[in-house]
Amino acid sequence: MAVRLNPYLNFQDSAREAMEFYQSVFGGELETSTFAEFQMSENPADADKIMHSMLTTDIGLVLMASDIPAAMQGSDPGAGPGATISLSGGPEDDDALRGYWAQLVEGGAVTEPLAVAPWGDAFGMCTDRFGVGWMVNIAGPGAS
Predict the structure, then answer these.
(1) 27 occurs within a structural domain
(2) What three-state secondary structure class fits 4?
(3) pTM of the model as a whole
(4) Which of 30, 44, 45, 143 is found 20 to 30 A from 93 (Cα to Cα)?
(5) Alpha helices of 1-144 — where are they, by DSSP H?
(6) Contact 69/35 with Cβ under 8 angstroms?
(7) Can you point out the beta strands (E) in 35-127?
(8) 17-60: per-residue pLDDT in tens?
(9) Which structural domain, as residue segments, surrounds residue 111?
(10) What are the two backbone dihedrals, phi and then psi, of residue 55, each rounded to the nearest 5 degrees?
(11) Residue 65 and residue 52: Cα distance in Å, rounded?
């Protein structure tokens, strides 16, 4: 049986905005649930925060995220801003991966430009506008 691992990000009050951005980059269907919808917090400040969201894309990426409730603010939320997600594919994915790269760097910062690396693949690193790092690797010609 195959195991599917999906990134889960935590945000300080920007999960909805971040997930809508990722939907604009990767497409797919976005589902969101707030703390109020599930009566999961007595703090009114949490009512409209995202308790759970899931973006399911046509390319097989499932990205999930939530906001950190007020009672946990300041604690280590786990994966979130500062986390890094890697996207990789073969030469046949070149156009798609370069398109994702172009959108992810908008409003963010390029750490390592997407260019041919010493190992022959195109590789780049960036941080998006939400503080999440992305590494993109596109296998070079002749890769299988």
Answers:
(1) yes
(2) coil
(3) 0.81
(4) 30
(5) 15-26, 94-105
(6) yes
(7) 50-56, 62-67, 84-89, 109-116, 122-127
(8) 999 999 999 999 999 999 999 887 788 888 999 999 999 999 88
(9) 84-138
(10) -105, 120
(11) 6
Q: What angle do CA 35, 39, 43 make, to 5 degrees?
A: 70
Q: Are 22 and 8 spatial neighbours (Cβ–Cβ below 8 Å)?
A: no
Give exposure, 84-98, as e/b (b: 16+ Cβ within 10 Å): ebebebeeeeeeebe
Q: What whole-number distance in Å separates Cα of residue 96 and Cα of residue 25?
A: 10
CA distance 122 to 143: 12
Place of tokens 């925060």: 49
Residue 28 belongs to a domain with what CATH number? 3.10.180.10
Q: Are residues 121 and 97 in the same domain?
A: yes
Q: Is residue 22 part of a domain?
A: yes
Of the residues 16, 48, 70, the one at which a domain ends: 70
